[in-house]
């Protein structure tokens, strides 16, 4: 009877529980309970997984092989089903990527609507056809637009930083994230935070230039734009910082080669942009191919654990660059076998394997042999699973194809691409105010290999484009002038190839025109004849079938030994200038090139880098004065390769001149002219010291003294006059872009704190040292308009810098 009464009591108790509680107690695993804390869900799922399933979660396979397209229908591929069943994969990379390397064209690749359907199909299979139903994380290339068909193409990063406008770049990053997320992406690769102090290096275009402070502000903007305030929004991406660390200064400019940098140089120059981006909330970091002081980044325990996680409190995940785990064996010769390489990487703190060939069976062997512990594996898997829960993928793994079709590459996004491109254009020279041009001009000769070439103005990591997506310089000029204006186009020559020449035709066109606009530079445009290594970097060589050399001279894998304009470009430019027709040089390129002769002989020079899909309109806006140029160089332009390195913030002592030339760049960091003039005046500096900090308040006025409205970038530089370790001759500390109407004056304020003046001393401590600091404010690192100094009375130790 007692047992009977007890059973009745239990039945009554259950009957009075809420329905949801009853279901949870009987059928719903904790990891599928959206109301449970994320860490509990991760722990519950982890303990249900086999070792093979855990290892699979760390594999990021090449995604473009994972769908099958037949006309307007798309499904998951056999390769995908096999990878799910046999490898238990948890991530894909570049699923929607289209370019010559992936062999995805406008016909074989996916438009935004089909892309959304493809990622939905893959998620559905991963969730419904596996034991635990874990959704995928899809990583996409997003440096200057989502690298997929039908998306908006912005200027490459070197152009983005030429805007010196972090708020604009944040707005751009928000759009890039939205377009990728609407198609099913979750992780955006970017920003690239490598300092570009070696212009021979092929990937300068992917960077924000040579300076840690400018790079930091741009990196923060990208992270904040990508990730937003809510990863579950359906519009935001996880940001992956590239490439950790010091990848941009390889020996001899050879992509991926060894880096020779001391620990203090790392701390002062190469690490701050990454630290700033981590502080901004970045949730993913990618290792570099290169080694630092003999230790490859993908096996650098101090870099990935001691610094990134323990000192910086980074709580996201680390992913290898493509093939860099295997590279510990095949390239760096650090490991004798691939299982040893897998052990080195995961023990150093690499959580995810980009490419899927570094971990997998090799990691399983390392686990079996005891080289890797189960605890290390669980830690890595936990980091991946945590983000899947934080993005809400277990509840909302799918996207809306109709929404992707409607919102990707909208008119608003295209307008923003034009705005970013416009602000990136930098006026290097404007002799006798030849610019802006009058729209009443009767005839224009538009000349050069980059005047009407779609792909040459887009940069590397760009998908195939429908022709009407892109506005070239020729098209931009034609759209700007009246129908009666005669616009004559002659290509004249190619970028590299010397068999495609029509200099005579270009000269004839220039002689018959009031002005000649010559568009030269470089190209990162890949074509389907280019050969690639396993990492996707291009290999250099002529087309053996036709004998015609491609234009590509920049972009991953295309390192240079010189920085001259290649092919017959200089010969073409000289011939045009010699006609006597006023000549304007427009540069479209991915790295600084030697411009000594143009600087001496061409009246006006505009640098547009790779300006993206709206480049032609943006350049025309500047040419004809509808936009007053405001770009500033984020990297120095050398006079010769023999000067390298030539970045502005070199350490003391001051460089002396060479026998052949001086040591100064042709155009300095921060340089950029306007169609108006700005006067700086009224500098005041006050110092307020507290027990653990100092505040330096700086005020000054800028007045637009010219005839046009314009934007100026005021730049603040600092020099530590006497310090316990060698410091830079000058270092950018703050900048502000301000719009001023003709005749308008504004007061600008900067505020520096102790951490802005800190150094890493001989005790390996961050400290702001007592002493005098020289303050310089101006329009570039060389064009200093205001000078002052201030003093700090005592040393201030900086905690958690």
Automatic annotation (TrEMBL):
Q: Which PROSITE patterns match?
A: GLYCOSYL_HYDROL_F3 (PS00775)
Matching entries from Pfam families are given as:
Fn3-like (PF14310), Glyco_hydro_3 (PF00933), Glyco_hydro_3_C (PF01915)
Q: Which Gene3D superfamilies match?
A: Glycoside hydrolase family 3 C-terminal domain, Glycoside hydrolase, family 3, N-terminal domain, Immunoglobulins
**InterPro entries this protein is in?**
Cellulose_Degrad_GH3 (IPR051915), Fn3-like (IPR026891), GH (IPR017853), Glyco_hydro_3_AS (IPR019800), Glyco_hydro_3_C (IPR002772), Glyco_hydro_3_C_sf (IPR036881), Glyco_hydro_3_N (IPR001764), Glyco_hydro_3_N_sf (IPR036962)
Please give a single GO biological process term from the UniProt record.
glucan catabolic process
Q: Where is the Fibronectin type III-like domain?
A: 712-781
| Taxonomic superkingdom | Bacteria
- Membrane-spanning residues where? none
Give UniProt keywords alphabetically: Glycosidase, Hydrolase
- Kindly list the GO molecular function terms attached to this UniProt entry: beta-glucosidase activity
Q: What does the similarity note say?
A: Belongs to the glycosyl hydrolase 3 family.
This chain's protein is named Beta-glucosidase
Q: State the organism of origin.
A: Sinomicrobium pectinilyticum
**Which taxonomic lineage does the organism of this UniProt entry have?**
Bacteria, Pseudomonadati, Bacteroidota, Flavobacteriia, Flavobacteriales
